[in-house]
Specification:
The protein is an alpha/beta fold. The chain has a single domain, classed as Rossmann fold (3-Layer(aba) Sandwich), CATH 3.40.50. It is built from nine helices and eight strands. The strands form two sheets. Strands 2-3-1-4-8 form a five-stranded parallel sheet, sandwiched between helices. The N and C termini lie close together (about 10 Å). Its EC number is 2.7.4.3. It catalyses: AMP + ATP = 2 ADP. Monomer.
């Protein structure tokens, strides 16, 4: 089977990262979590004298999307390395803006690069749909491991990671006020990308993101032809 590039869309708390991680663990994809990647850069103590990093950290920590030209550059470079190594890739946060997706007269968008790296027929787009109330509830109580970065489902209240026993922490962008900003950003800047992808002939598979993660995973595996 040809290597696939899978793009998972959905509002905050829709389970993008969970579903990408399941695909990576079971089907040899590289999970590229752009949110985690950006967070690691903007919170890197060694980079805090860099004015670009300081600017992007302010955006990231307040729920505003980071500067599209900067995001496009760092994500494209990382994607090229993964494709060159011969791996499939699954995104759980990239292609968040029209510019990042389609570029402009001076910049080639990430979508065109994916066509170059993987072939148009091997690009899959998934759209997870959840209610705003679910997003707010899931993210407000979510914790991530300070060591391995694994998220814990909202219903769990313990303080240690089940995987590595590292201490769990609350991300700066998972407070209710920031989540509301992120939901609006998704509606205004990211969701319109899906309509344009459909118009350009890319198949978008819409999936209900409310059920338990394992049920959604089973449906995704079927839709992607991985069984």
């Amino acid at each position: 089977m040809s290597k696939q590039a899978v793009i998972i869309y959905g509002p905050p708390g829709s389970g993008k990262g969970t579903q990408a991680e399941l695909l990576a663990r079971k089907y040899n994809f590289i999970h590229f979590d752009s949110g985690r990647y950006i967070e690691s850069l903007v919170h890197d103590k060694a980079l805090q004298k860099n004015p670009i990093i300081r600017r992007e950290r302010k955006n990231f920590d307040t729920g505003i999307l980071c500067t599209p030209t900067w995001v496009l550059k760092i994500v494209t470079e990382a994607t090229a390395r993964i494709a060159k190594a011969g791996y499939g890739i699954v995104y759980s946060g990239s292609l968040r803006t029209m510019f990042e997706s389609f570029g402009d007269k001076k910049n080639k968008g990430l979508l065109l690069n994916l066509v170059k790296f993987y072939g148009r027929k091997n690009i899959r787009v998934l759209a997870l749909k959840v209610r705003p109330a679910s997003s707010l509830k899931r993210n407000s109580s979510r914790r991530v491991c300070s060591v391995c970065g694994m998220p814990m489902l909202a219903k769990f209240t313990h303080r240690e990671c089940d995987f590595c026993e590292g201490l769990l922490r609350k991300r700066t962008l998972d407070t209710p006020s920031v989540i509301k900003v992120r939901l609006k950003q998704y509606a205004d800047r990211t969701y319109p990308i899906i309509a344009r992808m459909k118009k350009n002939g890319f198949r978008v598979i819409e999936i209900n993101g409310e059920p338990a993660p394992y049920k959604i995973h089973a449906l995704i595996v079927k839709k992607l032809g991985l069984e």
